[in-house]
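Methods — Computational structure assignment.
A single polypeptide chain was analysed. Its primary sequence is given first, followed by the predicted tertiary structure written as structure tokens.
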Amino acid sequence: SATLILRRPPERASQRMSQRTNERTNERTNERTNGRTNERTDGR
């Protein structure tokens, strides 16, 4: 990824924005998986 940034510097801003959105979606998926694992442990 470092080479891509060196080749096209203007994409840094868009990459930062995409990282933020990716983090948000990751948090949502993490909440889903955490809920599933919690249900499993409670079931035990």
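Note: The chain has a mean pLDDT of 77.
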